[in-house]
Amino acid sequence: MPFSGSASWPKAGTLIIGIAGGSGSGKTTIAESIVQAIGTDSVALIQQDAYYRDQTDLPLEERAKVNYDHPDSMETELLIAHLESLMAGRPIDRPVYDFTIHNRSKETVRVEPRRVVILEGILVLYEPELRALMGLKVYVDTDADLRLARRWERDITERGRTFESVRDQYLHTVRPMHLQFVEPSKRYADIVIPEGYNQSAVGTVISMIRDVVRTV
Hints:
- It is a single chain.
- The protein has 216 residues and is an alpha/beta fold.
- The chain has one domain (15-210): P-loop containing nucleotide triphosphate hydrolases (Rossmann fold), CATH 3.40.50.300.
- It has helices at 27-38, 60-63, 76-87, 128-131, 144-158, 163-182, 199-213; strands at residues 15-21, 43-47, 92-98, 103-111, 116-120, 136-141, 191-194.
- Strands 2-5-1-6-7 form a 5-stranded parallel β-sheet, sandwiched between helices. It has a two-stranded antiparallel ribbon with strand order 3-4.
- Helix 5 crosses helix 6.
């Protein structure tokens, strides 16, 4: 588990931790395991997927064709504003994205300020403005074949996709965008976790976060 040593740990205020990696890398599992270990009274989890741009003006057929692995598909400006609000001690109303209709739901989720905020998503380390807010940057480095197998299972069982649609999306957008944007962002990581859920690596991150929480 390489560690660059460049992490910035605030003695007070909010610590933003970015967890990036390719689709199906295991970053969501890692982020959720950290929240479970530390507790929701100290840690809030925000998933970048919730900030896909609203596309109510497009018909369903056109929404399905959008390149959701390109940085432009994200409303990063809203995400940054929400993170800054949490850092200032103000709650936010996080968007909810419905993958079955390729659009935002009308619902929102209230997120209260916490000592630690984990931001998880494929492109969270790509955006310089997001990286500037982070005290710790993590990249989950998982083999492409394993990521694709996980994506197939998830999208078919949870998001109502067909085998063919997942395959076509992977070949036309997911893989090219991973090579262009996601994989290169690994160089910004303070910690690289190999092969998805690595118990030793995740344990190290949890221990580091506990040290920060204890300074409150």
